[in-house]
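call fold(seq) -> tokens
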Amino acid sequence: MKHIPRYELSSNGIETSISDKGLLFVHSKDGVVKDFYKSGFQVVGVFVDTIRPMYKGAINIDFLTSLIQSFDAGENSMFFDDIEWSIRKSSKSSGYQYILQNNDIGLTILYKNWHKKPDVPAAHLKIECSPWFIDKRPINEIQDSVNMYAEKMLLNPEPNNLPIHLAVDVQGWEPDKEMPSRIKHKAKRTAESHYRNVVEFDIEDVNVIYNNAQSFRIGAASSVQLAIYNKTRQSKDIDKLDYMRFKWSSFNKNYDDEKTTFRIELRLHHTVLRQFCWGSFNVHTGSMDLELFTYQDVVPHINALWLYALERFKFMYNKRYYDPLWTILMNDIDFNSKISESSKYCYQRAYKKSGTGHNGNNVYLTLGNLMPQYTRNSLPFDQYLNDIQSLSIWNQMIEHYESKGVPEHEFIERERAKYNEQIRSGKSI
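ret:
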């Protein structure tokens, strides 16, 4: 794919010269394709919007006991680390039993894996860090904070995974109704809604259009997802507009609060980052030493992840050229080049860790043969689950499903549904 040549306007606004930072895009045959000078285009924000560090370890029984005692006493909050947290029980769909939340700090903690015993080292902790939490702290303080919570809530915690959302906010541009058809991607289905507030769909490989074609969400939440939406409207709806205006004006002194700001957001699931660890290598040493398990690990590689995600959703002017907006997003955006290590690595995703020796067919055959042995005897699902979790290949099986974008808790719930269906229908008899 090619980029349309860019030209810069002179100070008199008449003469032009070719420039890799120009905002006038001129095609050799079609002439002026886009004049971003005329529309007043500007980038008003380059942000890490959300991170969700995940940790593996055994449960700290003392902390779990204090949490349960608070629930038994009918309380809806507890003090932890000298801070009051609201507490509530969670549904199995989240994969965790308990939620602790403090909006003043900007943290939501999901705790205790539904499907693992407390004394079994497992993915028992996920810490959702809001923009409010991220904006107020340097990288090392963010990492130290989440590590501290992990050490107090788990025994021997290990960083396990990290989903991340990257965002660029712009003015002087807005999506049109033709935009989805000009984005080259692999979404298999398209859904459309004209409601202003749209419930998040849990659909694989889906393209969702809403807000009168001014907001788009394309791709699977379990892989790489593109979201484009009216950030001014969304910030107003959640009562964060004043805060966002402060962020935008701090980033760009020319921010205009009379203009609408649109956000281009790329969301990378933790399995994507894990696949980069499996497939990428150091160009100087040849070693496959890339680690992307903590926020501090990921920050030097954010520019590379941003470019990869943009390539997953190519916004095209025609079959040969990128749209001018994508040229700017690919060439002008810098999350943190001062500490970037992008030049040191060749980035590629591997969908199975080398040397595991356990492919998808083996996984399906193993489960397909085991399940009927339990269902035909109407044994409880928990017994079946405990037995397959005790298999030496359990971790490899989970790695396989996670490489397909299916987290462990979702895999277990799918197995539960299949198990119950076999018992009801008598298919295993």
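Residues 360-425 form one domain.
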